[in-house]
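Troubleshooting entry. The earlier prediction with S-adenosylmethionine gave an output that would not parse, so I re-checked the input for stray whitespace and re-submitted. Clean input:
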Amino acid sequence: MRVRNKPWAKDKLSSYPQYVIENPADHKGKWNQVFGNDNPIHIEVGTGKGRFITEMAKANPTINYIGIELFDSVIVSALDRIIEAEIPNIKLLNVNAVNLREYFAKSDVDRLYLNFSDPWPKKRHEKRRLTYKTFLHLYEDILVDGGEIHFKTDNRGLFEYSLRSFSEYGLLLTFVSLDLHNSDFEGNIMTEYEEKFSLMGQPIYRSEVKFQN
Ligand code: SAM
């Protein structure tokens, strides 16, 4: 995605330590202390501007949410949404998901969302796809046993690839839709990319998979 440089973004993120966790490794294995309760934790990898995770947090106050995004100039928009709505059950991490094991211990996370992940269509970039086997291994290492990945995309190639990758890894497919917006799935919360692509008439693909450990 194209990222507009916002030189002030880092400082703004640092000004809200109640929402943006600067040293996530310090909380590995004890995220319940960060939230002040033992509610389940759901994370989104590649949160972008944060519409999905902030709306999920508002709709589900007994679940704790953590949004993870690489670019400070993007995640700062998620921060604005949280400040505006004063959402207590959400935190943001401005980090690279390849390092998730540094921040989360086994079973710290109950569910993981991937929404409109970058497709990296070239075969030589396969390892960068967030549904590549090394990422699935990473997710398995931080999720509870039987933890789930919920995945949405407009990209048919990435969806087909990901279903194959999930299957080769031994994940159990528990939900699939090839046209989410015309399915009977209830309670869908749209992401920024989802709105953009569905307005262009593209179907939205969605799957849920579960680790069988
Ligand atoms: N989920 C949002 C949505 O649906 O509107 C944003 C989708 S955007 C195409 C993908 C986002 O994932 C980008 O903001 C990108 O910076 C982020 N991202 C990609 N790889 C990442 C990584 N390894 N760690 C953290 N964020 C990542």
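This one parsed fine. Residues 1, 45-48, 68-71, 74, 96-98, 115-118, 191-194 surround S-adenosylmethionine (CB under 6 Å).
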